[in-house]
Amino acid sequence: MIEMSEVYKTYPNGVLAINGIDIVIHPGEFVYVVGPSGAGKSTFIKMMYREEKPSSGKIVINGIDLSTLKESKVPMLRRSIGVVFQDFKLLPKLTVFENVAFALEVIGESPRNIRKRVLDVLDLVQLKHKARFFPDELSGGEQQRVSIARSIVNNPAVMIADEPTGNLDPDTSWEIMHLFEEINNRGTTVVMATHNKEIVNTLKKRVIAVEDGKIVRDEARGEYGLYD
Description:
By secondary structure, the protein is of the alpha/beta class. The protein has a domain at 1-70 and 190-228: P-loop containing nucleotide triphosphate hydrolases (Rossmann fold, 3-Layer(aba) Sandwich). The chain contains seven helices and ten strands. The strands form two sheets. It has a six-stranded mixed β-sheet with strand order 6-7-8-3-9-10, sandwiched between helices. The radius of gyration is 17 Å and the shape is globular. Part of the ABC transporter FtsEX involved in cellular division. Residues 2-227 form the ABC transporter domain.
């Protein structure tokens, strides 16, 4: 479960990015976060995996209070949260297999368990046959699927995606979205910031709309709305 209570975020330059957010996201939900550019969506998303800290208020994910979490404990938190970015963030000198395995190596998994788990998730994202390829040998859609495989290899309870289809063509975007749906159907909570109106309006999920740092709309099967 993700809970935010009276959360505010003001940056050092004085910009108020988050202005009193209260929200509960239940286990297994699929949530879109939408809104115009500069609305506070990215800050909202980044606070969930402690890339940003709130100026005040409380954020609790799966019983962990992020507001008071020590910096030394942040890596442990992120092992239970999968994060997918618009620009993939793959390590260019590692193969597909190695990029995904890295997430397990840092927590000391055995080579045997790493091999099995990595091959399982590469099979899920339909890239098992490209395990020995390097990122620059893949298409953008394939690189995003590797990023997704890396984010779920630890069996996270929560997956957070920040504009995961932003750099992809429409057909590839749909492939990625169907993969997110499959992951959600397996029980993972998915929270996704997106500007993709067509996807939001077609694959109807819960929609949280953010404007000027506030939640202005929260609908169970919502639509994108009138944003650029």
